[in-house]
Amino acid sequence: MMKKVLFAALLLVSVQFANAQSWIPVDKSPLDQIYFPVDYPSLKIRNPREVLRMRIIYSRPFKNNRELFGSDIVPYGKIWRLGANEATEIEFFTPAVVGGKKVPKGRYTLYAIPEEKAWTFVINNETDIWGAFKYDQAKDVARVSVPVKELTEPMESLTINFEKTKTGVNLVAGWDKKSASLPVTF
Amino acid sequence: MVVLKRVSLFFIIFLSVFFSACNGGEKKPSPAGADTPFVINNKPVLPPSDRKNSYADVDVSPMDMSYYPPNYPQLKMANPGLAQPVLRVIYSRPHLQGRTLFHDILKYDEPWRLGANEATELQVYQNVTVEGNKLPKGRYTMHCIPHENEWTIAFNTALDIWGLKFDPSKDIFKVKVPVTHSNPSVEYFTMVFEKNESGANLLMAWGDVIVKLPFNFNQK
Hints:
The complex is a heterodimer of chains A (186) and B (220). With 186 residues, chain A is α+β, with helices and mostly antiparallel strands.
């Protein structure tokens, strides 16, 4: 009797698991995108002349009570996908200048090498790739080292934002109590 | 039999508790929310842990993407030099949250953006066809009109747009695909590619509805 019950229960549980796995569940580090100009898709409805410059597509891991920078999650001195899952994607819809280098219009990946006081942002040619596991420096398009800013309020989920400047835009990445800005001009 | 059901129910509850306990002692502010939707006054809200993000909050209908071949980025990691992917769809995933798909959320014969927020985007990496219609390499948006027994799917050239402003004059073509009902319910709108004989189907599932949109890779 008990064996039958056990078997039936296990079967039910496994069927539940099988069902859960047959469709992709929502990721615990959900994907997100940000345009520059910010909110371009709705901005465009009000102002069709707005020029689209950039878009970032990235997954947003949560801090989840963990130590992040300098720990195993984001070790110092190592290339990081600046997100979760797939390598973070950066698309330029017009030519741009990053760290003094001309970046032609197109799709790229965006990484960072965080250190205690500075982050190096890296733009690379290899797209549609998982993480930074097969990162190849020979395919770099630009590398820029910038100082780290300490935030007063910790940020639970990794966030990439664009802040307009006089000459272009700063791509601002922040997580926990750290943030770094990559200047881009057009 | 009733006793058996009760015993197995108890056992399942025990197992579920056991499994969730194994999933980590720490509290997970899961944005997935499939098991614990954050709902206040019938309105979906963000996980409490993330309400204070001063830059950009995590969306209640999170974005996701699917490639063909499935899991292409992982495949490429394992096989450097792998040929380009064929298709990628980027979409936001609304969820039922106790509502029925028809007609709490969608209505028959009324257009839908096939997702949430921005228009759903399809990246086509090589020339393909859909029901005999040419779909050249490039980026497109997709939208649909659900009917009871078939869905009209449109491919549009307006990009980077919010999903409520579709310009039908920018449709490059439309196809009609069959729909099945009474499938096991899916909480979050899901798009995923599966191999078929001549290419791949884009499976779209939400509630008890499944729609399959076939892409042909042989006809260019």
